[in-house]
Amino acid sequence: MTIVQPNDLQNTPSTALQDLPLLEVRSISKFYGARRGCENVSFDLYPGEVLAIVGESGSGKSTLLNCISTRMLPTSGLVNYRMRDGSVQDVCHMQEADKRFLMRTDWGFVHQNSADGLRMTVSAGANVGERLMAVGHRHYGSIRSTATDWLEQVEISEDRIDDQPRDFSGGMRQRLQIARNLVTGPRLVFMDEPTGGLDVSVQARLLDLLRNLVSNLGLAAIVVTHDLAVARLLSHRMIVMKDGHVIEEGLTDRVLDDPQAPYTQLLISSILQV
Ligand SMILES: Nc1ncnc2c1ncn2[C@@H]1O[C@H](COP(=O)(O)OP(=O)(O)OP(=O)(O)O)[C@@H](O)[C@H]1O
Ligand SMILES: [Mg+2]
């Protein structure tokens, strides 16, 4: 697969940006000393597409996600991202300031542990408003009203806007994290076990909300999960990892209903037996 360079784009005026990959992950490997985190992972992600990365604990899911989202420098490989202006950038090797800007604007990251994604001792409204201020919004009234809108979209009632997330339940914190991430209108959201550690009923509500938001906003997303039900509900496509390698990939329904690799078959049957 050739990597599209900005110059090529100018030669293909009839190709809509929507038809070109948003993200091209090429041969990403990450070693922690001699220990393999992930090795030689490649895939494309298209606008509006949701990809699940599944696999047992230690299979390299978070390592891969952290490399793709520039939170960690891979040992080798590259990640090309198509910016809003159509140009393509190798995000792993961008300047730190440019990475941070991308993270604040066009990208979101929903952490499993909400304390990693929220400021626990400032109000819910400020958690959402802060992202808006980071992209240049200055008018207090409009920041507050946008924050209120977003809290409503994630089903947090307006009268909690001045409360701090440390006083919220686990499910509410995750919903607040989602609002904080989506308020700047990102095109790509990374999620690492977004429903991990929550009660089953809380998980179901959060998944339902996420699925609706992602589809209504046409977001592209990469969701790391060890829960195949989460992959089934949220993703169009999935990759299965084991020991840092991709064992199988394909459309989610195909992989789950007709797994080809013996490891995927085992993973699915062992989950179904639980
Ligand atoms: N900071 C680190 N230093 C050394 N080894 C690490 C580090 N982080 C991860 N690893 C190793 O890399 C491999 C992949 O770990 P990773 O955390 O990416 O897996 P995972 O699939 O996200 O697991 P989990 O489902 O438990 O979160 C494991 O062998 C792990 O021990
Ligand atoms: Mg992990």
Automatic annotation (TrEMBL):
Signal peptide start and end residues: none
GO biological process assignments: organic phosphonate catabolic process
Domain ABC transporter residue range list: 23-268
Family, as annotated: Belongs to the ABC transporter superfamily.
Record's protein name: Putative phosphonate transport system ATP-binding protein
UniProt xrefs under InterPro entries: AAA+_ATPase, ABC_transporter-like_ATP-bd, ABC_transporter-like_CS, P-loop_NTPase, PhnK
Nucleotide-binding keyword on record: yes
GO MF term (any one): ATP binding
Keywords tagged on the record: ATP-binding, Nucleotide-binding
Keyword ATP-binding: yes
Domain of life: Bacteria
